Amino acid sequence: QGNMCLLDEVLDWNPSQLRCRSRAHRLLTNPLRLGHQLSAVCGIEFAAQAMAVHGALVQDELAHSALDNSEEIAEPRHGYLMSLRQVNIHTLRLDDISGDLEIFVERIGGDGVTVIYEFRVDAQAHQLLSGRAAVGCFSPTAEGLNLIQHLLLIKLSNNGENFGERFLFIVKFY
Q1: What is the C-alpha separation between 45 and 9, in angstroms, rounded?
Q2: Residue burial 60-89, b: 16+ Cβ < 10 Å; e: rest
Q3: What is the reported pTM?
Q4: Rounded distance, CA 137 to CA 135, Å?
Q5: Quick check: helix, strand or coil at residue 88?
Q6: Which of 36, 57, 73, 151 shows the smallest number of beta carbons within 10 Å?
Q7: Is the distance from CB of 105 to CB of 116 less than 8 angstroms?
Q8: Could you write out the DSSP letters of every residue in 71-83?
Q9: Residue 159 CB coordination number (10 Å)
Q10: C-beta of residue 58 within 8 angstroms of C-beta of residue 22
Q11: What pLDDT sits at residue 136?
Q12: d(CA 21, CA 8)
């Protein structure tokens, strides 16, 4: 919502991938800026938003298909960024990139609870960052939120001192 909506348009998509564009990295009002700079690591948030858009588009298409076939529509689910892997960052900042950002996400696996995406953020045919993300998909009920808390406790107890390396953060997709 508001300034945190970082994507400007979806360029194309299908059930396994999405490509979109953003100009928000150049905005002085970008809420991710620290001082007058936007760190390249913030590109992960651009990619996370692209994953959320992809998930919503796929979910919407499934709901329309269910309506057409007189089937029950699945309850909407929220996605939570559970982990990042193989993140490669090839620049220090995004705010000094003059061209638009092109964000590409591709669903490469998953089951009913977890989806694995590869992501890439490019500008002017140059890769700025890339990586893989695991997204947990839960219903917005108390039961789904309890499952998230349980997963967090498992991660915390299993990783101990390596928590910062293994479990980076959880971001709710809206």
Answers
A1: 16
A2: eeeeeeeeeeeeeeeeebbbbbbbbeebeb
A3: 0.76
A4: 6
A5: strand
A6: 36
A7: no
A8: PPPPPP-EEEEEE
A9: 13
A10: no
A11: 83
A12: 6
Percent of the chain with pLDDT over 70: 68
In three-state secondary structure terms, 93 is strand
Query: Token match 């089937």: residue?
Result: 71
Query: What's at 89, amino acid-wise?
Result: I
Q: For the range 147-154, what are the long-range contacts, defined as Cβ-Cβ under 8 Å and sequence gap of 24 or more?
A: 148/80, 151/82
Q: In 3-state terms, what secondary structure has residue 123?
A: strand
3-class secondary structure, 156: helix
Distance (Å) of CA 99 to CA 93, 124, 125, 132, 159: 13, 6, 10, 24, 40
Q: Which residue pairs from 122-127 have beta carbons closer than 8 angstroms and sit at least 24 positions apart in sequence? A: 123/97, 123/99, 124/97, 124/98, 124/99, 126/90, 127/90
pLDDT score at 110: 82
Strand partners, 80: 136, 172
The closest of 102, 119, 99, 127 to 21, measured between CA atoms, is: 102
Please identify which residue in the block is written with the tokens 């029950």: 72
Q: What letter represents residue 161's amino acid?
A: E
Cα separation, 43 vs 7, in Å, equals 11
